[in-house]
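Colleagues,

For the teaching module next term, I've prepared a clean inverse folding example: a structure given as tokens, and then the sequence designed for it. I'd like students to try predicting residues themselves before seeing the answer, so please don't circulate the second half yet.
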């Protein structure tokens, strides 16, 4: 429909072709794709099964087979965020049980046999040491006696006998382990380890050790990395050369260990690896001809490239801007990919770069006329610096806003906070833009994908730089005449939920806010969060308790008297990363001061909603929230959200 024939309606009230049900209607969340001898495998997170992850096999004839039984959740909880929950090695298929933490062997479709003992142990990053009939894995020990004696759970590298299930320790003593990788001849093991207070991107050590005749490890030596140098994704080439990713020049590039010396493979202003929030990331692999296939990120976008022997890059032209999980099978490549108008999919590439979609996260393929395409923008921020983000203008082929009216803006940002804005098709954002909202997804200082200096901007400045950049992005769009400066909202989950609350508490830029499992009291985060992130705030704020005043000054719930804009708080009852008590501290503070707010708690949900009911209800609540605050009627028939003190605040305005 042309603009001349489009229906005129207030921004935010447009009838959208993207129904709210599309958030879960036959939707799956795809991960851990791989290909072996023409067979393809991946995990599907299914909202209609309570968000459980299901292992699926695509057979040679193209048919799909479910491998894990109904009710089983193939997911790891090591570091709470998990990842690398599946091992496929020939006929050996092993999956992690999210509930018990045990490893199970898949003996037939939907039939499992427990492998590891019934203990409070969790496993991830499992590899197959076939010559010794065992697995090697990262184990996280949650046995009460062990936790009591050490003050926190214990991480180590272990071997698991495939006949008996017996578990023996290979390496211990470091706070964290990741990426055990066995050399092609089986003689040497490489792995990463690091120590409190680091997160992996602060500094990791790449270790090598020879495997003795009895299967134990000889003395290990550090071949790269340190407490201040980030090493990621060690991987052996078919010829037995150890490769890894590091950033000595300020960008995460490829290196290799040859004859005991480190050689540079690539030297570009691009990131060949991202932050290790989960186990099992694969952003480069080896082709049969020795060429390296890699995902390189710069300017907020991923690019698939071939790395030739001389280190030069050959870009592969694809419509995808978000890619991960490379798996090379002969001359074909399997990976997860998404583009600005392409939903996340498991795709297969042939040698000429032609893509075949094997599984799409949603069957609801959008019409491009209704899709808001992410525009990567650069804008000035505090200190004369520049920041970045993805701007999504309101888009509809059937509706336009009234003459002279500008759309409301929803500012959001990624979690982490060390992560990056997603540039692929995201149904959640399109649900807003197709209803007449503009959206800005901010890649604030601290984000990865822009080099080390940009990432380091957030050190000791969390709650300042991220907030400043979100405010600066909103102001920039207002100044450009693209959005309504009197209808600005901010939303986010986890770390972005903290940024949302901080922006509401410490600035007056936003007129509404929605936080999902966001942090309100930073002191509580130090006390209550899990081991992986238990010392994260030392780099973001300073050591506790020496920097106690910083924690107090930047905790939004301790400054609720400054919050005047309405707030919607949404929380999972089973969240172990940001507990329910955190959300209720915020809500209590808002209630005490009669700040307009609503609070929704979702039983059975943890850090990131995965169940159908929670996904649908949380979005409906957010739509109702903005409509009431900004004063229009949504086109959708949704249950109205009760916002406490909203009318009272209007009477006093």
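(Answer key — instructors only)
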């Amino acid at each position: 429909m042309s603009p001349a024939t489009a229906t005129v309606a207030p921004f935010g009230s447009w009838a959208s072709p993207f129904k709210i049900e599309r958030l879960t209607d036959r939707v799956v969340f795809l991960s851990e794709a791989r290909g072996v001898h023409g067979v393809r495998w991946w995990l599907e997170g299914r909202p209609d099964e309570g968000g459980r992850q299901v292992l699926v096999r695509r057979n040679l004839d193209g048919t799909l087979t479910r491998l894990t039984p109904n009710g089983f959740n193939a997911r790891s909880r090591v570091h709470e965020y998990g990842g690398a929950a599946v091992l496929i090695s020939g006929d050996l298929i092993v999956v992690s049980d999210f509930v018990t933490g045990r490893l199970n062997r898949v003996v037939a479709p939907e039939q499992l046999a427990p492998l590891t003992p019934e203990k409070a142990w969790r496993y991830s990053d499992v590899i197959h040491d076939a010559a010794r009939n065992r697995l090697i894995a990262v184990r996280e020990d949650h046995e009460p006696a062990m936790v009591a004696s050490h003050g926190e759970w214990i991480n180590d590298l272990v071997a698991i006998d495939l006949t008996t299930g017996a578990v023996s320790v290979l390496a211990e003593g470091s706070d964290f382990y990741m990426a055990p990788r066995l050399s092609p001849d089986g003689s040497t093991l490489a792995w990463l380890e690091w120590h409190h207070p680091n997160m992996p991107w602060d500094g990791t050590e790449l270790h090598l050790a020879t495997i003795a005749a009895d299967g134990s490890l000889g003395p290990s030596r550090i071949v790269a990395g340190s407490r201040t140098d980030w090493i990621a994704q060690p991987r052996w080439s078919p010829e037995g050369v150890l490769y890894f990713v590091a950033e000595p020049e300020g960008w995460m590039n490829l290196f290799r260990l040859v004859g005991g010396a480190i050689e540079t493979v690539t030297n570009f202003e691009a990131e060949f690896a991202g932050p290790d929030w989960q186990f099992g990331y694969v952003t480069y692999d080896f082709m049969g001809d020795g060429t390296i296939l890699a995902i390189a990120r710069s300017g907020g976008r991923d690019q698939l490239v071939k790395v030739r022997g001389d280190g030069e890059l050959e870009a592969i032209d694809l419509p995808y801007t978000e890619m991960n999980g490379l798996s090379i099978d002969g001359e074909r490549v399997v990976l997860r990919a998404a583009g600005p108008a392409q939903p996340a999919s498991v795709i297969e590439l042939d040698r000429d770069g032609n893509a075949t979609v094997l599984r799409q996260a949603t069957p609801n393929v959008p019409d491009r006329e209704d899709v808001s395409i992410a525009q990567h923008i650069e804008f000035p921020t505090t200190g004369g610096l520049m920041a970045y983000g993805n701007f999504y203008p309101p888009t509809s082929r059937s509706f336009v806003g009234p003459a002279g009216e500008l759309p409301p803006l929803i500012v959001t940002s990624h979690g982490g906070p060390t992560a990056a804005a997603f540039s692929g098709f995201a149904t959640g954002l399109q649900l807003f833009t197709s209803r007449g909202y503009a959206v800005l997804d901010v890649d604030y200082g601290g984000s990865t994908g822009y080099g080390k200096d940009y990432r380091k901007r957030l050190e000791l400045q969390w709650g300042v730089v991220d907030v400043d950049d979100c405010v600066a992005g909103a102001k920039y769009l207002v100044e450009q005449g693209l959005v309504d400066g009197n209808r600005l909202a901010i939303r986010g989950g986890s770390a972005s939920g903290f940024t949302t609350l901080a922006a509401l508490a410490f600035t007056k830029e936003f007129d509404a806010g929605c936080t999902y499992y966001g942090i309100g009291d930073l002191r509580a985060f130090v006390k209550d969060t899990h081991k992986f992130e238990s010392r994260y705030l030392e780099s973001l704020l300073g050591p506790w308790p020496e920097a106690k005043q910083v924690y107090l000054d930047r905790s939004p719930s301790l400054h609720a008297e400054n919050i005047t804009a309405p707030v919607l708080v949404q929380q999972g009852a089973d969240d172990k990363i940001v507990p329910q008590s955190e959300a209720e501290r915020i809500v209590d503070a808002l209630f005490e001061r009669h700040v307009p707010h609503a609070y929704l708690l979702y039983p059975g949900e943890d850090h990131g909603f995965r169940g159908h009911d929670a996904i649908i209800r949380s979005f409906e609540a957010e739509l109702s929230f903005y409509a009431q605050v900004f004063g229009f009627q949504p086109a959708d028939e949704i249950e109205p959200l009760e916002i406490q003190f909203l009318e009272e605040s209007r009477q006093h305005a």
